[in-house]
Amino acid sequence: MSYAVFHRPTSRARRSLRQAQLRSRPGDRQLVDEVLVALALGDMETVLARLAPDVVCVTDGGANRYAARRPVVGPARVARFLTNLTHKYIDEMTAENATVNGEPGIIARLKGEIDFVAAFEVDAGLVRTVRIIRNPDKLRLVTSPPALQ
Fold it and tell me: What pLDDT score does 16 carry?
């Protein structure tokens, strides 16, 4: 038999958790919202202006969902990739703002079911990394905030 042993987090772990909570700044949410609106409008110029020169988009579809096999790198390629995704699903999808691992993000639903979760890492006022999770095994862990009664 094996037993799980739980220890009090080390100071390094506590510091790491605090940094993750402080990672997102109020302006980051506004920047991500600007990118999302620009994607919906097909405003490539605005999208490109808000992406870092070394931006990377990483997707995870698991075994059963389509996703890019390799990271999409560079502002032009990331902007084109995100624009194509947006226009493919814009009429069928709804999105709600969310904080994903301390970063501004969205939960996107297709026909009421969660299709993907995206997190946007912002640094120096630009989107540096976009992480898109479509893997159903990982999405099972995503829940909406509880309703207040």
Answer: 55
Q: Which residue pairs, CB below 8 angstroms and at least 24 apart, start in 69-78?
A: 75/48, 75/51, 76/48, 78/51, 78/130
Encode the chain (149 residues) as per-residue pLDDT tens digits.
Answer: 434 444 455 566 555 555 554 556 778 999 999 999 999 999 999 999 999 999 999 988 776 777 777 899 999 999 999 999 898 888 899 999 999 988 999 999 988 889 999 999 999 999 999 999 988 888 887 765 544 44
* Residue 117: CB atoms within 10 Å: 22
Query: Who's near 52: CB < 8 A, 6+ residues apart?
Result: 75, 123, 124, 126, 127, 128
**Token couple for 138:** 């990982």
Break the chain into its structural domains and give their ranges: 25-139
- What CATH number should be reported for the domain whose range is 25-139? 3.10.450.50
Rounded Cα distance, 47 and 39, in Å: 7
CA distance 58 to 133: 8
Distance (Å, whole) CA 73 – CA 127: 12
Distances (CA, A) of 1 to 4, 5, 136: 10, 13, 31
